[in-house]
Amino acid sequence: MIRKQNKAANLLIFLSVLVLNMSCTLTNRSDLAKESLIPRPVSITSTGDYFFLKSGANIYIEGETDKLRKVGDYLAERLKPATGFDIEVKPAEKVPGSGNIWLSVSDPDQKLGFEGYELSITKDLIKLSANSPEGLFRGIQTIRQLLPAKIELGTRQQGDWKIATGTIVDYPDYPYRGAMLDVARHFFGVDDVKHFIDLIACFKMNVLHLHLSDDQGWRIEIKSWPILAIHGGSTEVGGGAGGYFTQEQYADIVKYADDQYITIVPEIDMPGHINAALASYPELNCNGKATELYTGIEVGFSSICTSKEISYKFVNDVVTELAALTTGPYIHIGGDESHATKKEDYIPFVKRVQDIVRDHGKLVIGWDEISLSALNPNTTAQFWANRENALRAVSQGAKILMSPASKTYIDMKYDSTTTLGQKWAGFIEVDSSYIWDPATYIPGIGKESITGVEAPLWTETISNMDELEYMVFPRLPGIAEIGWSPDSIRNWDDYKVRLGNFAGRFKDMNINFYHSPKVPWVEGN
Ligand code: TNX
Fold first, then answer.
1. Would you say the CB of residue 62 lies under 6 angstroms from ligand 1?
2. What are phi and psi of 131, to 5 degrees?
3. φ, ψ dihedrals at 124, nearest 5°
4. Are 62 and 505 in contact, with CB atoms under 8 Å apart?
5. Which member of 337, 369, 429, 481 is catalytic?
6. Which end of the chain is more exposed for a tag (fewer CB within 10 A), N or C?
7. pLDDT digits (tens, 9 = 90+) for 108-123
8. Can you give the pTM of this predicted structure?
């Protein structure tokens, strides 16, 4: 009797596990529109079936250029470790056969613009098309997110590598979608920066702004002023050893970012936030005396001597070397919190520095205070705190990069219990950093004046990758979505579910993230 009951119970358990498994596979990945994608694509049409990635699948590229091949190789490298498949990248002479992935730039569609893509998935084929390799690269991030989370693991996994069928048409709302890493307060080396690039690429960001100098450290080798890096780079907040990038290392970072279609924007902060340089070269000080190195976290106490001609030679030399290392269009000149520079000195200084950058063929970005000065055409002001500054920039015809501190400063604590971070701009929970629209944030500054969004990570309190990831995740994906997805398709209730479904993916990507109580975390997607 007992044995019979046991048998029946076992059968019941077996059947319910079977049904559960079946329902998981059915709901998981056969409805494309229900997939958790970040940023949310512009449009998704489901066709209710699925594509099965199997051993023997290859990636076919249409058009044999170096860039296309690199993009193909990038996708293959994302797929190979976890599937264990020997995926090859081959030129496509005709429509590839069943079971393959096809990357194509042969059929331009204006609507997609430069970074957009169309992903068409049938039972037989994954076809990703775009107008450029860059668009393909963005689309590949979507393919990654459509596969089970364990695709991110570095070792071979048993798996149903299924992707729901249908079509995604997708392109960004703003051209500039960035993150900033402050390598000056605490130094982060080449491998860390590359890892950060990998992380932001997943969410289709296309800019990494590197804050390369501040009171506490100078982080880029300048051959004509060598003491900047050697002495100015020799410490950091808290008195640690600091460090700097040699020009070779920096060029390697720029190349690594370029390969992921991410523009590096280098920042040299001036006329304030410059103690590391003032400690390295006495002649940059009005009194001719070098300052002490600084390892605290106060701001606004240093100023380069704006009345000395040598200061402009210094700026010109630094910009000359930096411009030569910069493949992107921008150089960031800082300009924030110059409390130790008189306003009447700040104004002509910022004008002259803009001219220097322009003369080296680069466009200027500066923190919103630069609008106190006359702005050159094509200068961008990065709004962080002062709306009047941003409005003044727009009235001069400048574009605005939106980094409102109370929304995008991912060095702010999540809540009163967060141990890392600062709180001068308030606590920023995950919902708060997501719920805002750049185009309405400052009355009087509309979308036509906005180039995009950027999430800065200041590192006074952050000294290693674990801490960095904890502050960045999960707020950065939300900022990436604000930059990519139109406001009309964004809402928190939908986003929090998609974000919650990333728990397993973050885990498999080995990302240390904040388990915000605002988000319904679900592992195993
Ligand atoms: C303000 S934002 C700063 C930085 C600090 C940051 C800390 C800006 C342009 N300046 O120097 O690191 O606050 O949150």
1. no
2. -85, -10
3. -95, -30
4. no
5. 337
6. N
7. 788 999 999 999 999 9
8. 0.94
